[in-house]
Amino acid sequence: QFPFGRRLPCDIYWHGVSFHDNDIFSGQVNKFPGMTEMVRKITLSRAVRTMQYLFPLEYNFYPRSWILPDESSFFEKEIRMMKDRDPSWKPTFIVKPDGGCQGDGIYLIKDPSDIRLTGGLQSRPAVVQEYICKPLLVDKLKFDIRLYVLLKSLDPLEIYIAKDGLSRFCTEPYQEPTLKNLHQVFMHLTNYSLNIHSGNFIHSDNVNTGSKRTFSSILCRLSSRGVDVKKVWSDIISLVIKTIIALTPELKVYYQSDIPAGKPGPTCFQILGFDILLMKNLKPMLLEVNANPSMRIEHEQELSPGVFENVPSPVDEEVKVAVIRDTLRLVDPQKKKQ
Question: Which residues, in sequence order, are bridge partners of residue 97?
Fold first, then answer.
């Protein structure tokens, strides 16, 4: 580590923030210019919705979404029309602040008029999405999948998907949303940073049990029930590729303005965290993309009030060590020399 920067050129620069926080003139850097902006909830939503408009059948893996406050009245009008058409339709919506992370500020509503104007939407815009009411359950719990995707280069477009990911579980048995249970975050939201505060959270010492497991352990269970897991994987791969294709045009603009062709500069690669939900019918849905997924392989445990220690997490270690190791192998500059 070079906490105060480094003057000599490096082969690979690895840093934790965004591309513009370091002056890097050579080698390879683990961030793309513009990526942090492109995967924010509103920008991602716009990019995917543009593609939904052009290719509705190809991009049906992203929930119906509206951007607030810009589309508030359009959102209300559209929901009213759909309810008039089908009075039995009882939707639930999930509101996600644009810059929020780790489940911060997310809440569920049944009606457009329930949107909270806390802090004003003007100062904190948000995306509102149709909530997926019929997720696949394991042990009666809702879970999502965090997959690690390496964008190795934009031109040519090179994408690698890690063979294993994390499955992050809710800590209360799932029930479909009703006015009574809308506020129960441990039932509806899969965010690790929320569920870790639940009394039911289980830190596991193996990859098949507990509130965080490997995705491969879930696929094993599904396979034993007769599910075609190859089809599940190919649907997920297709979702990842199409999402990156939706982001690529703007990413190229950012890239070319920061590192114009012919001018010396670094080349870029980046590990992205894709959050995906499997529906009951095993169709994968994209929840969001993370430009800076956590690579921690330990968790904090409170030994006594106010006294914490870091404890290794076997599940994180199993998945994340492989992700970093294989990324470094793939971007290894020595390979090109041979």
Answer: 126
12-38+134-332 under CATH 3.30.470, yes or no: yes
In the beta sheet, which residues pair with residue 212? 168
**pTM for this entry:** 0.92
Q: What is the chain's Cα-based Rg?
A: 21
Q: CA–CA separation, 119 vs 125, rounded Å? A: 10
- Predicted confidence band at 7 (pLDDT cuts at 50, 70, 90)? low
pLDDT by residue (tens digit) across 242-291?
A: 999 999 999 999 999 888 887 777 889 999 999 999 999 999 999 999 99
DSSP letter at 5 equals: -
| b (16+ CB within 10 A) / e for 239-249 | bbebbbbbbbe
- Cα separation, 57 vs 61, whole angstroms: 9
Structural domain boundaries of the chain? Answer: 12-38+134-332, 64-131
Q: Say what the alpha-carbon torsion angle 279, 284, 286, 291 is, to the nearest 10 degrees.
A: 130
In sequence order, the β-bridge partners of residue 326 are: none
- pLDDT band of 165, cuts 50, 70, 90: very high
